[in-house]
């Protein structure tokens, strides 16, 4: 070590405080050349953390320098100093690895592993050193303790009922905060008698409800919480503490296990209501309804900070799919309360161990947690870890990671493993987890290790696949009994008091009342934002979507005004200049301008707009340009202008988000947002239409069926680019057939607008109508800049969205012998082909709304051609896809006597479209030729004989 460095060590102004050394060491780890040669030399010389060469722990660094300073100044016993460094390594070893030997499993099935790094002998520290006093370094304790005392503190904190994982967190203050909370109390809760009585009361309620239902409704599925009973006091404590910290709303997402218990013992649902559901009572207004353990509920709970509104989200059987839905609902509620920091509304997500490790939507939702468009100020994750999942034999079959919670490490979320049989420890960790979330605005995980007393459901026999585990479970007296016995031994309660609690709760159950949670009960109803909106099946209420010419032109000027000294990319500059001409009426409007005007008019009428998707700011097809980027910017996060945010002083919020590369989680988030905020136009755009395949669970289980199952209305808009242009199987079809298959009960709207004006009126109609239903829009690609598809300004100032558009050319009505019906881009192909062929006896009708089908409007078009004897449905998609199989039944209803219905389409195919451009062109030509064939002989149709006919 250099003389200069030794002089530094003796300088009293450099007494190497922990923050100073930590900062230097952090810099060194990122870039070794960022520190001086002397410091780098010392850091290089530090011994590796272990033989595997994993990350060097930080905390011994500062202490080592203190020792070096002391050694230079006073030359103490070098052997003692060597052992001092080893003590600091032992401390950090417990911070990293203590959970490996922690008492986490209530069943204690397996012997604890041998972890050499936790043994003092591993560092040459012997029994003779136990009474030697050492510096404690960064340990939250007295500055000097005996090795015995240090070891006792470490084992109590990190090797008892709590196993903490947080040392991988890159932010040092967060690590220090966690150490203060854990080490400061040695992992011990220290609750008073009243608090522990409340815990026992909640445990009693949890266990007794399950056993009561088990005997009263024998064999009925309920997905019992038994074995994980501590979840109920955990949630109770979490919500009470949250309310005390000023939280006004909490949204809970969970799968089925324990849901009935949470409904009754946390949200205060009356047992009589639950019993009625077991006996078959159901909501008459829901055409489908859902099982008990999928139902949502909400209530106002009294806390020290006042009323806390708690909503339990409705959830289908797809486990973790509710996660992003909850996050979206929370974000909407935060927006409504102007809760920019996420301090007033919090998300709470309950997970199963196998699901947390196995479901991809968990990772996608975690990945959203700190992004600008989706963050909610941190989520409290609670894993009900019954160590079994469904029926898998052991952890080797359900994950590849050591712990089920490991995926959370990717976002630096701290993970607190805790033994569910130690309710006091669970409550302590619950406090730390919530406080961490409120302090740092980040996700945190509680992994409550427990067991599952019964099978996956009450009709399942777990011994078939789990004989070893269930021998231990059969011998376990239950968490309530274990805790009650502990309280008796410690003199907190009298013998027999626990049994009296059971009797009292059972009596309340017999009377159908809730004795534990006197919440202000109310079933999940629309929040105030839903006032004035109607339910029912009235999807076609007419509304005026026109806008005056003066207003459109004024908004158009604002949308095309470039800020001073702001340089647009040359192609964008040309687009903006053209749009300026469109606003003046000098050019017809394209799709991008029409869409931006639709948003602008809504924003200035009091409707916020939220648009997200992969590259939605610019638009996948370089068409939207809702976000402008200054080409001269020198700082990456500056030089961005969003014209739709600068329309007027009192306009509503416009948010456009270039989302992470996720469909499932992002679409789930937007669904949750739309259900909680009906007066915001919420849109999600797929990069290509069939990319929505990755979110099919959200579409099936929420968007299409949420209303008939749970009565949940939603005005979410899905924009799905669709059109056959030779781009291959995955870039052509938005899978129209899938959405039409889901259509029933007037649940969704499926539209294929063919002009910019149609898109303008469609988007405005979505918000101006007095109801909310999901809107699926198949948007174009090549038509985005097509002059054929452009719309004059007069189409915006007059008219409305037309579900059916009739013939646009002056054909002799009495000479028309064939009606060709179609949707989307193929209309322009048909129109151009008819002009080229000089055909005058075939009319082309566009069906712009495929569902709900506009029967009256279509019937009027058919009636306009009294001499037509033929009808052809023409589509670009193969016969087993597209709208044909659904549309034919609607078309048939309007055929006159003797009128024939046939089709023109691609041959049935396993893939949505041809991958070879030559094949695509050949097929496209054949489809158009088939639509205009002289007769309806099916043998002349390309692909005839395939299964689609």
TrEMBL record:
Please list the cofactors this protein needs: thiamine diphosphate
Q: Which residues form the Transketolase-like pyrimidine-binding domain?
A: 589-786
GO function terms (MF aspect): oxoglutarate dehydrogenase (succinyl-transferring) activity; thiamine pyrophosphate binding
EC numbers: 1.2.4.2
Gene Ontology process terms (BP): tricarboxylic acid cycle
A cellular component annotation (GO) from this entry? cytosol
Q: Which InterPro entries match?
A: 2-oxogl_dehyd_N (IPR032106), 2oxoglutarate_DH_E1 (IPR011603), DH_E1 (IPR001017), KGD_C_sf (IPR042179), ODO-1/KGD_C (IPR031717), THDP-binding (IPR029061), Transketolase-like_Pyr-bd (IPR005475)
Family affiliation = Belongs to the alpha-ketoglutarate dehydrogenase family.
Record's protein name:
2-oxoglutarate dehydrogenase E1 component
Source organism of this protein record: Gallionella capsiferriformans (strain ES-2) (Gallionella ferruginea capsiferriformans (strain ES-2))
């Amino acid at each position: 070590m250099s003389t200069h460095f030794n002089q530094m060590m003796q300088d009293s102004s450099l007494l190497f405080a922990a923050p100073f050394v930590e900062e230097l060491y952090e810099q060194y780890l990122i870039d070794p050349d960022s520190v001086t040669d002397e410091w780098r030399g010392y850091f290089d010389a530090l011994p590796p953390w272990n033989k595997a060469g994993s990350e060097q722990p930080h905390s011994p660094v500062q202490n080592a320098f203190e020792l070096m300073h002391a050694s230079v100044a006073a030359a103490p016993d070098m052997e003692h100093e060597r052992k001092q460094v080893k003590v600091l390594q032992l401390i950090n070893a417990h911070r990293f690895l203590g959970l490996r030997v922690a008492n986490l499993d209530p069943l204690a099935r397996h012997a604890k592993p041998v972890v050499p790094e936790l043994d003092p002998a591993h560092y040459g520290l012997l029994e003779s050193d136990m009474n030697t006093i050492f510096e404690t370094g960064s340990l939250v304790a007295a500055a000097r303790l005996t090795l015995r005392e240090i070891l006792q503190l470490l084992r109590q904190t990190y090797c008892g009922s709590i196993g903490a994982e947080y040392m991988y967190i890159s932010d040092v203050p967060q690590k220090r905060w966690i150490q203060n909370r854990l080490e400061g109390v040695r992992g011990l809760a220290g609750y008073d008698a009243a608090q522990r009585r409340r815990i026992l009361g909640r445990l009693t309620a949890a266990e007794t409800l399950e056993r009561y239902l088990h005997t009263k409704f024998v064999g009925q599925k309920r997905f019992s919480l038994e074995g994980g009973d501590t979840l109920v006091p955990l949630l109770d404590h979490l919500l009470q503490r949250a309310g005390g910290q000023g939280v006004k709303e909490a949204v809970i997402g969970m799968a089925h296990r324990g849901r009935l218990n949470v409904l009754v013992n946390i949200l205060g649902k009356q047992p009589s209501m639950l019993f009625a559901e077991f006996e078959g009572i159901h909501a008459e207004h829901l055409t489908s309804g859902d099982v008990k353990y999928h139902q949502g509920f909400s209530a106002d709970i009294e806390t020290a900070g006042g009323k806390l509104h708690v909503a339990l989200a409705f959830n289908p059987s797809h486990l973790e799919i509710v996660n992003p839905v909850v996050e979206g609902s929370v974000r909407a509620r935060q927006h409504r309360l102007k809760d920019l920091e996420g301090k007033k509304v919090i998300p709470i997500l309950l997970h199963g161990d196998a699901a947390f490790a196995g479901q991809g939507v968990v990772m996608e939702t975690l990945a959203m947690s700190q992004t600008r468009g989706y963050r909610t100020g941190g989520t409290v994750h609670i894993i009900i870890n019954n160590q079994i999942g469904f029926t898998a034999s052991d952890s080797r079959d359900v994950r590849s990671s050591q712990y089920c919670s490991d995926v959370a490490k990717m976002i630096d979320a701290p993970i607190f493993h805790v033994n569910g049989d130690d309710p006091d420890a669970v409550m302590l960790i619950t406090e730390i987890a919530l406080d961490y979330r409120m302090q740092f605005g980040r996700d945190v995980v509680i992994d409550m290790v427990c067991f599952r007393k019964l099978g996956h459901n009450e009709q399942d026999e777990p011994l078939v696949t789990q004989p070893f585990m269930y021998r231990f479970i059969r011998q376990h007296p239950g968490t309530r009994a274990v805790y009650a016995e502990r309280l008796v031994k410690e003199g907190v309660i009298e013998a027999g008091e626990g049994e009296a609690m059971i009797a009292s709760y059972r009596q309340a159950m017999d009377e159908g009342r809730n004795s534990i949670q006197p919440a202000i009960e109310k079933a999940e109803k629309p929040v105030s934002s839903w006032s004035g909106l109607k339910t029912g099946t009235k999807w076609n209420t007419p509304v005026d979507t026109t806008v005056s010419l003066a207003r459109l032109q004024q908004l158009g000027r604002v949308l095309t005004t470039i800020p001073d000294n702001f340089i647009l990319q040359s192609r964008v500059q040309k687009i903006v200049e053209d749009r300026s001409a469109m606003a003046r009426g000098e050019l017809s409007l394209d799709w991008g301008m029409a869409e931006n005007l639709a948003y602008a008019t809504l924003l200035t009428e009091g409707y916020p707009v939220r648009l997200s998707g992969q590259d939605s700011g610019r638009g996948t097809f370089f068409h939207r340009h809702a976000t402008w980027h200054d080409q001269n910017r020198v700082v990456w996060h500056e030089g961005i202008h969003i014209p739709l945010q600068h329309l007027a002083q009192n306009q509503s919020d416009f948010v456009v988000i270039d989302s992470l590369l996720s469909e499932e989680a992002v679409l789930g988030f937007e669904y949750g947002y739309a259900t909680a905020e009906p007066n915001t136009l919420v849109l999600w755009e797929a990069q290509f239409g069939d990319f929505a395949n990755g979110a099919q669970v959200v579409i099936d289980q929420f968007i299409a069926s949420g209303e008939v199952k749970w009565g949940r209305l939603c005005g979410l808009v899905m924009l799905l680019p669709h059109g056959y242009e030779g781009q291959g199987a995955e870039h052509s079809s938005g899978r129209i057939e899938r959405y039409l298959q889901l259509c029933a009960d007037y649940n969704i709207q499926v539209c294929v607008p063919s002009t910019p004006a149609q898109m303008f009126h469609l988007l405005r109609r979505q918000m101006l109508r007095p109801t909310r239903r999901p809107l699926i829009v198949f948007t174009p690609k090549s038509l985005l800049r097509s002059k054929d598809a452009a719309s004059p300004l007069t189409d915006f100032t007059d008219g409305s969205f037309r579900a059916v558009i009739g013939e646009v050319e002056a054909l002799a009505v009495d000479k028309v012998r064939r009606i060709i019906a179609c949707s989307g881009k193929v209309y322009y192909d048909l129109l151009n082909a008819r002009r080229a062929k000089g055909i005058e006896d075939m009319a082309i009708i566009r069906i712009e709304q495929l569902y709900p089908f506009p029967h009256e409007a279509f019937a009027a078009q058919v009636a306009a051609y009294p001499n037509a004897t033929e009808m052809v449905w023409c589509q670009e998609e193969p016969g087993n896809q597209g709208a044909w199989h659904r549309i034919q039944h609607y078309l048939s209803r309007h055929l006159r006597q003797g009128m024939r219905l046939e089709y023109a389409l691609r041959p049935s195919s396993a893939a949505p479209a041809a991958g070879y451009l030559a094949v695509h062109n050949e097929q496209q030509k054949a489809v158009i030729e088939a639509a205009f064939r002289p007769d309806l002989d099916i043998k002349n149709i390309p692909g005839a004989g395939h299964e689609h006919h």
